[in-house]
Amino acid sequence: MVPRKPLEILKGMIPELPSMPCTRRSEEVPVLFREPYVHDGYRAPHQPWHYYLLSLFQIHNEVMNAWTHLIPFSILLYNVFTRTGELDFSADHTCWALLLLGFGGCSFLFLSFAAHLFQSHSEHAHYMCFILDYVGIAFYGFTAGLAQFSICSDPWFSRVFKPFFFPLLVASGCYTCVCCSYGKVRFNRPYPRMRWVLQISAVGSMYVLSMSPVLHRVFMDHFRGSMDTVSWMHVAHASFFMTGVFFYTSNVPHKFQPGTFDIFGHGHQLFHVAMATMAIVQFETVFRDLQSGRHLLLSRPSATSILVQLAVVLLCCVVSTLGMAVKVRRKLRNKVQ
Prior knowledge:
Layout: H1 6-13, H2 49-54, H3 63-84, H4 95-118, H5 123-152, H6 155-186, H7 193-224, H8 229-250, H9 267-292, H10 303-336
């Protein structure tokens, strides 16, 4: 009897992943699943759910979109647990704003990961996955604004704008959730420019609002000559956001060589990397501001106010999701008829 090599024994102990059916070209999948300038690597629709789950370990044109948010999600989740473990929530209710920021960032990353992994199951799954993705984006924008106003603001900014900031932030979070979801369901591929304008304007206005305390603070730090490491970290996460916007809106580099970046190097993957890095750097930056105690000089919202705002945004997201689910079913039913 010939002795087996250790590697052969080890391979025999590991269950073999089911082989993935061949990926398809763009013309072989429904129009809804086709991405501009992406010609190949599409997964077959209407497969069992575990097929899409296991596709995380296969090669196709969504695999990097999934991993570029799953890995940062794991990093951010670890950071949230370790950093918030150093805080005393009973002594300072502002710590909850940081925890919400961490939870918002994790939600945004995880829902995007899940959307890209499972959206190819069916047209209904595609719509619902990305509607939930937009919920994550809206919720993250709200938590970012809440944390940055409560922890990172300049004292003058927090005192003057507190009466207006939070109502606008709640309205902006709700508006972003509804607008992005509506744009996804209302328009068909190839998407008209109106959809792009609707979604970018909603997300852009929410980002500008949530970043306004930080932008004002960095400007004042620069004016006073007091820029420090944390100030530059705020500049860094804002720069990552702008980098992400560039890749999302420009279709670079894949529009210059259609088909070349179907699997690796697609602009949407670079957009994911930039936005995920932004979320990780932003959380660490807000944590350092909280540690410094600068928030004790600010006009901060009460714990009750934070809970009420959170409840309103979450309720809006739930109602929007349920409403869009009804609209999706109606749209697909009319398509069949």
